[in-house]
Amino acid sequence: MPLSRKKQRFDQAVRLNDELVNRLEQMNGKPYPAYRDLEGCWKYPSSLLFIDHVQNDPYAPPSRLRLRIEHATAKFPSSLYSTRHLWCSIYPISAAADNYLTRIVSVFSTETSKSSNWHGTKGGDLSIDKPGQQVLERSSITLDQESFNILFTYGFPAQGGTILGDKAAETFRTTIPRLISNLLYETQNKEELKAFIESIEDQEYHRQKIKESGLVAFVANGAVLPRASGASDKPMKGDHLVKFHSPKDLEHVFTLPNRGEIRGIGIPAGITLIAGGGFHGKSTLLNALAYGCYNHVPGDGRDFVVTSSDCVAVRGDDGRSIGSVDISPFISNLPGGTLTTSFSTTNASGSTSMAAGVMEALELGADLLLFDEDTCATNFLIRDRRMQRLISSDPITPLIFKVRAMFKDHGCSSILVIGGCGDYCDVADLVLEMRDYSCYNITENARRIAVEIPSGVPEFEARTFGVIPQRQLHPSSIPVNVKTSARGLTAIQLGEETVNLFALVQLAHESQTRAILNAFRRIRASTDSKVVLNGILSQLQEMMDRGGLNALTEEGHFDGFLARPRLLELGMAVNRIRSAVFEG
Ligand code: ADP
Ligand code: MG
Question: Of 125, 184, 479, 519, which is most buried by a Cβ count within 10 Å?
Fold first, then answer.
C-alpha cells in the first residue's frame, strides 16, 4: 500500500474496539483484502491496539499488531524496569522484565491456538516471539517510561480467499482482552517475576565482578552443564547427570546482591587448557562457557556460568570467504606469493578460516577466545617437532606458538579443549582435566611432564604477536536491494547469495539472525563512502541502546521478532558476506 494511504489510516481518530468487532462481523464472506480497512489504532478499555500491517492474503506472513498498555493501568512497580544499582545499566533489568512477560504471552498464545477449534481454515492464531534459555534484549515486549508495548502477529482467518469475520471477531472480542489481562501486574506470579529479575541482576553483576577480579570465566558449584539432548538447549535431568564442582584450590567466592554467596571455579586471564579423555565432558564445559556471555533463565543450570561478554568461540569454517584480513601473524609465504597482510579468498581452507576467525575476533574487540579441538583445524593448532623438521615450507605458524604473545600483546586470553596434544602444557597457565564429568586441576602434573618430556615449543614460540589492523568496509557492496530473508538461525539470504552463519556458535536465537539482516540493511543505507567496520558496528549498537531493536528496522515498521546480537556476531556476519568489499 502506498505510504500516504496507510498514514491516513493512522491519522484517523482512534476508533473503539466495539466498532472493530462489528466491522469484522460485517466482513464475513467478503474477499480477503477488505481486512486492510482495519489498519489503524483501536481503543480497548485499558489499552490501545495498533493494527500496523494487514497481510495481503491468507498465505502471506501474518499481520503485525501492537498493544500499548500504560503503566498507570498495568501497575508494574517501577523498580522492575529501572536501574536499582549503579553498576547495572538499565538494559539487562528491563530486558529481564520484558523477557519474563514475553514468556508469559508466548505460553498464552500457544495455549490459545491449541484450544482454538476452528479446523480446516487458515489463520486465527496470535503469535509472539518465543525466547530460548538465554535472556536477550528483544523487541517482542518493550517497556518505556510511560507504557509497555507488546508486538505480536495475527493471521487474519480465511476460508479460501474469503474472510471468516466471525472467527476474527471472536479473537478481538475475547482473546485480546484476555491477553491484556495476562499482562497486568496483578495477574503475574509476583514471586517468580521478582526472582527472574533478581537472577538476571545477579548474573550481570557477577560478569562485571569476575572481570574486576582478573578472571575470564566462572562456573558455579552445582551448575548443570550438559543439555537434555543434542537438539535441546534445556538442562539435562536424571541419574546420569553430574553437577559441576570446582577443584578446591581454584574455588572463588563472590557475594551477589540478591542471591548472596556463590562459589565456583574462577578461570584467570591467560591460557587455560581443558584436557581429558574422550566423552568425559570437555566440549560440554566449553560450550557452556561459550554461552556464558549471555544471561540465562533461572533454572537453566548455566545461570551462573559466566564468561566475559566479549568472548568468542572460534571454529573452522572452510569454504567461507575472507575479505582483506591481515592473517600474517599466523600465515605467510603462501604458494604463488599471495599476500597475507591483506588476505582475501572466496574459498578458505580450514587453517586460513581459523586464522581469519582469530584476527577478525581480535579486530572486533574479543578478550577471550575459545577453541575446541573437535571443531578446529589441527594444523592451525599445532605442529610438532618432527613435522617442523619434515616440512620446512609450511606457511602456518600454529596457534601454540602465538597464543601467549596474543595474551601478552593484546590482552586476549584463550581457553582450549585439547585432548590430543601435550605440547600445549608448555604454554598453559592452568591445566584442567575433565574426568567422568568432574573437573580437576592438573597444572602441576602437566608442568612436571613438560620438563620430563621436552617439546619443540620453546624453540619456535613467537615473542610478539603482530598488529591487528582495523579494516574498512564499503557499505554499498552489501546487496540489499534484492530479495532478502533470514533463514533459521544460521543463514541469511541476500538475493542469490546465502550468508552462512554456521560458524557463529554463540548465535543463540533466530531472532538475532533476523536482527542481523536488519543491521545489514542499516549499514547499506548508512553511507556510500567506506567506513571503519568497528565504527559502523558501534554506531548500530548505540542506535539499539537508544531506540531498541526497532531502531534497526525501516521507519514506522515494527517487528516483534528481533533479539539483540552482540557487536561480535554482527561483525562476524558482515565478515561472511561474500560480496562485501573490505580494505585492509
Ligand atoms: P568430550 O568433549 O570430552 O568428548 P562431551 O562434552 O562431548 O565429551 O560429553 C560427552 C557426553 O557426555 C555428552 O553426551 C554429554 O551430554 C554428556 N555429559 C557431559 N557432561 C556431563 C555431565 N556433567 N553429566 C552427565 N553427562 C554429561
Ligand atoms: Mg569434545
Answer: 519
